[in-house]
């Protein structure tokens, strides 16, 4: 049995992420302790005009008031302190006072943050990774400060210390690139090569002269290069779990100008695309619009000819029941450059996540991938070979024709007690596995009401599933295995 984890109903706020330009803007801080000091230190760097209202203040705040970097009003807060404020941060030690000030700010539509009181705050202050001028802000929507801190630590370790200087250096090259390079596309590629290549490496390692030399060479070669031709990358997206994308697939998604994807490719995977890439769904949807293969080929060619980097993203592997070969043939005919990034095909992903080894020294010496769809000219697969003992057969697109497939296997010599499994939504959190025998599978599947996409696996190896299942098997480990 598969149980799904249930979550307590929480309603996290979907904050709108912004960076606020506070230069010369009046900002009010109410409270004068440690906490207020921390916020003031952050505010100072933004160039805000800070006023601190508090009867008593931390020594550091007093020093700052004395040197004129902030104004200190040594008294209790009064409502007129809000006059003209662009932002309010409340950090007194009295919760009721904090909330009162928050209510007043709200009434005057001034964004307010009450330290450690998310419900009373209009905005929250994120955890940051600071590589001035590069700033990474992290929020968990208030769900877990510890998680935010861990993430921050990872980013701290991951982002080089000189990242901010590097950003400034890149800005310094912007005007030169505008003067020397033809169009925005060429400039984007120049900067991509710079950032991905040895120039960045040099700079980060502390050799800005070396970096500049590389940049100048690159500028010269880019300027004289002929207009970049578009390319098409045929990319396998894997069976569903986004973590099964290859590094190359990720890179292709990050570099793409436009992504033409199948309907089966999940939003979780499309999330990895470059933010301003155009996403075009060209899948066939049940009963909805569908794009013909000829249309898809034409779209690929058309966009590549505009000089774009086109990604054609397909579920699983593009060369396994994905018509990848047909699309490439069309590109070859049109003289468009292409490359292929393989993906984990459904059979491999699903078998792994279902705990069914497709081959096994004791049970199966071969595995066949078969389409459950009827062949275009009604040609049948080699049913005898698929039914033979010691063979594993994996049927794609087999759910609708399940009964016919089972019947053919039985007619061609497979035993009725040959183990068989149907796996639906494989590798995804809602993966479901139904195991049975050829004799009982159809009824079991009907009872379980599985939905496509689903994969049929037939062979003795399926029997191993009962011991090897590991994914989405909830709770069994806690239950004593008595029976
Ligand atoms: N090129 C793809 C296959 C496309 S055909 C690949 O290499 O995986 C579509 C069929 O793949 C579906 O009908 C189903 O049989 C199978 N399939 C794809 N994703 C699946 C998944 N997550 N779980 C089970 N079967 C899947």
Number of domains: 5
Helix and strand composition category: alpha/beta
Mean pLDDT over the residues? 91
What fold name goes in the CATH topology slot of the largest domain? Methyltransferase, Cobalt-precorrin-4 Transmethylase, Domain 2
What's the CATH superfamily of the largest domain, by name? Tetrapyrrole methylase, C-terminal domain
Oligomeric state of shown chains:
single chain
β-strand number? 17
Distance between the termini: 15 Å
As laid out across the biggest beta sheet, the strand order is 3-2-1-4-5
Evaluate the radius of gyration. 30 Å
User: How many strands, which pairing sense, and closed or not: the largest β-sheet?
Assistant: 5 strands, parallel
What percent strand?
15-25%
Low-confidence sequence ranges: 1-8, 476-483
Portion in helices: 25-40%
CATH architectural type of the largest domain = 2-Layer Sandwich
Number of helices: 18
Hetero groups:
S-adenosyl-L-homocysteine
> What is the 3D shape?
globular
State the CATH class of the largest domain.
Alpha Beta
Structure write-up:
32% of the residues are buried. It contains 18 helices and 17 strands. 36% of the residues lie in helices and 17% in strands. A five-stranded parallel beta sheet has the order 3-2-1-4-5, with helices on both faces. Strands 10-9-11-8-12 form a five-stranded parallel beta sheet, with helices on both faces. The chain folds into five domains: 26-125, Rossmann fold; 126-159, Double Stranded RNA Binding Domain; 168-224; 231-344, Tetrapyrrole methylase, N-terminal domain (Cobalt-precorrin-4 Transmethylase, domain 1); 347-468, Methyltransferase, Cobalt-precorrin-4 Transmethylase, Domain 2. The chain is α/β, with parallel strands linked by helices and 483 residues long. The chain is globular and about 95 Å long. Bound molecules: S-adenosyl-L-homocysteine. S-adenosyl-L-homocysteine binds next to helix 14, strand 15 and strand 17.
């Amino acid at each position: 049995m598969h149980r799904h984890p249930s979550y307590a109903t929480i309603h996290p706020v979907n904050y709108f992420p912004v960076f606020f330009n506070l230069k010369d803007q009046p900002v009010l801080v109410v409270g004068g302790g440690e906490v207020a000091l921390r916020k003031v230190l952050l505010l100072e760097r933004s160039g805000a005009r800070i006023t601190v209202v508090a009867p008593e203040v931390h020594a550091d705040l007093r020093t700052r008031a004395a040197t004129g970097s902030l104004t200190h009003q040594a008294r209790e807060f009064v409502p007129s302190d809000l006059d003209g404020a662009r932002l309010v941060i409340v950090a007194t030690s009295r919760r009721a006072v904090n909330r009162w000030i928050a209510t007043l700010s709200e009434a005057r539509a001034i964004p307010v943050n009450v330290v450690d009181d998310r419900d009373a705050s209009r905005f929250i202050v994120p955890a940051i990774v600071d590589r001035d001028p590069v700033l990474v802000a992290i929020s968990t929507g208030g769900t877990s400060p510890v998680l935010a801190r861990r993430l921050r630590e990872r980013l701290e370790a991951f982002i080089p210390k000189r990242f901010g200087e590097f950003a400034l250096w890149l800005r310094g090259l912007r005007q030169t690139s505008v003067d020397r390079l033809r169009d925005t596309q060429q400039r984007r590629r120049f900067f991509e090569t710079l950032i991905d290549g040895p120039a960045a490496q040099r700079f980060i390692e502390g050799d800005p002269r070396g970096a500049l030399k590389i940049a100048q060479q690159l500028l010269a070669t880019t300027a004289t290069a002929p207009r970049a031709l578009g390319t098409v990358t045929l990319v396998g997206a894997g069976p569903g779990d986004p973590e099964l994308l290859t590094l190359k697939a990720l890179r292709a998604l990050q570099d793409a100008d436009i992504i033409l994807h199948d309907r089966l490719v999940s939003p979780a995977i499309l999330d990895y695309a470059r933010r301003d890439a155009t996403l075009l769904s060209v899948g066939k949807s049940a009963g909805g619009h569908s794009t013909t293969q000829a249309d898809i080929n034409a779209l690929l060619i058309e966009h590549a000819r505009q000089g774009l980097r086109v990604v054609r993203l397909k579920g699983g592997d593009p060369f396994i029941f994905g018509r990848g070969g047909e699309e490439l043939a069309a590109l070859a005919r049109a003289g468009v450059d292409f490359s292929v990034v393989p993906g984990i095909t459904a059979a491999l992903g699903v078998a792994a996540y279902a705990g069914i080894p497709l081959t096994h020294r004791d049970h199966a010496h071969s595995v066949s991938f078969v389409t459950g769809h009827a062949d275009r000219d009604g040609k049948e697969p080699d049913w005898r070979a698929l039914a033979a003992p010691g063979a594993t057969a994996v049927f794609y697109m087999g759910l609708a024709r399940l009964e016919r497939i089972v019947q053919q296997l039985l007619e061609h010599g497979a035993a009725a007690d040959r183990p068989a499994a149907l796996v639906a939504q494989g590798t995804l959190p809602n993966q479901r596995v139904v195991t049975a025998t050829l004799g009982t599978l159809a009824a079991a599947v009907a009872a379980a009401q599985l939905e496509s996409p689903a994969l049929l696996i037939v062979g003795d190896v399926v029997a191993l599933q009962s011991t090897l299942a590991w994914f989405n098997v909830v709770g069994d480990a806690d239950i004593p295995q008595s029976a």
